[in-house]
Amino acid sequence: MAKASGIVALLTDYGLQDSYVGILKGALLSVNPAARLVDITHEIPPQDVREGSRVLSAARAYFPVGTVFVAVVDPGVGTDRAILGVETDRHFFLAPDNGLLGFLDRTGRIRRIVRVTETRYFLKPVSRTFHGRDIFAPVAAHLAKGLDLSKLGPGIGRMTTAETVAPRKSAGGGIEGEVVSIDRFGNLITNIPGELLPASDGVRITVGRRVVRALSRSYADAKKGALLALVGSTGHLEISVNQGSARKAARIQRGDRVLVTRTRG
Q1: Which residue of 9, 37, 113, 124 has the smallest Cβ count within 10 Å?
Q2: What is the pLDDT of residues 81-123, one digit of tens each?
Q3: Residue 102 per-residue DSSP state
Q4: Which residues, in sequence order, are bridge partners of residue 155?
Q5: What are the backbone dihedrals phi and psi of residue 240, each rounded to the nearest 5 degrees, phi first?
Q6: Nearest-CA neighbor of 120 among 150, 146, 152, 147?
């Protein structure tokens, strides 16, 4: 089994304008001052469970064995929704049972799941609106110190999975996907894996009213200000502009369709 490393990785939709992230960290460090905290992001769109799950799934592989991941995108805070503790062959996860950790079901590497109910590890009193501070933070701190997951509550057999949108074959034999995220540079990140793409010189990519007719290897392959397509760091098709914003150039929003077709050689 994975042994806790003392590293705690944080992902929330709290943003950085308010004090919530700092207070969560303070509560965690009050229980475990030796914990090493890493911010994955606190800019998940509010209540966007699907995006939180996507980002966490993409990030986890780059963290050391024994990392405790705390994911708080929790529109059901204060209700009877469960809080889960999950142990895989490499990591530990804490999240509400709303689909945030659903990607773990697809890996087949879950060792155990518990419903976090043991109040001795919570702060008192527990607010109905800030479980990040009162439950997730102290529980993560104890896990990072080596607390066995079984001490947190009863084992359960399954968890909620979030709705996912997978690319599909179009009527014309192409691949139809969508823009699932737009980063701060204006890059359009799609749900189309790179391995599904045809050769770079035999592809036509349609996004909105714009068309890209080749795959690039880097942003600099295109002229400054030109629209391009490449396989980004997540391993998925990405639409970008060299030194510009594809979001502005193509006038695209999350959820807009992306169509990939082969061209005749």
Answers
A1: 124
A2: 999 999 999 999 999 999 999 999 877 689 999 999 999 999 9
A3: G
A4: 114
A5: -140, 170
A6: 152
